[in-house]
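Q: I'm a student working through a structural biology exercise. My instructor gave each of us a protein and asked us to get a predicted structure, then write a short paragraph describing it. Mine is Ferredoxin. I'm not confident about reading structure output yet, so if you can add a plain explanation after the tokens, that would really help. Here is the sequence I was given:
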Amino acid sequence: MGRGFQVTNRTTGDSFACGDGQSVLKAMEQQGFKCVPVGCRGGGCGYCKIKVVEGDFECGKMSKAHVPPEAIEQGEVLACRIYPLTDLIIECLPQPAAGLASKQTTTKALR
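A: Happy to help. First, here is the predicted structure for Ferredoxin. I'll explain a few features afterward.
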């Protein structure tokens, strides 16, 4: 895996290691951190949005509908498509759960 980086969640103070060339989401999942919901893992759904408060990273392709260029400039990115170049400090962004909650409620009501 090579050299690794430390990723710290500013909100909780939790931190985890992220290998060189490994996405932040993959490192989170491998180490049992549940900071963000997980969707497609390919940059298209927007579920795993985080804010990088401090540090440098490379970005893979992300849906511009979920992460427009101006958001990236402010550090708002998808955890599945960023790869640390230095240690990072992140914040997990709250996701609107209205659509998911109503689908779950409807499913439960049908049973």
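A: Here are two points you could use in your paragraph. Residues 22-83 form a domain with the Ubiquitin-like (UB roll) fold (CATH 3.10.20.30). Residues 6 and 17 are 5 Å apart (CA to CA). It's a good idea to check both against the output above yourself.
Q: Great, thank you!
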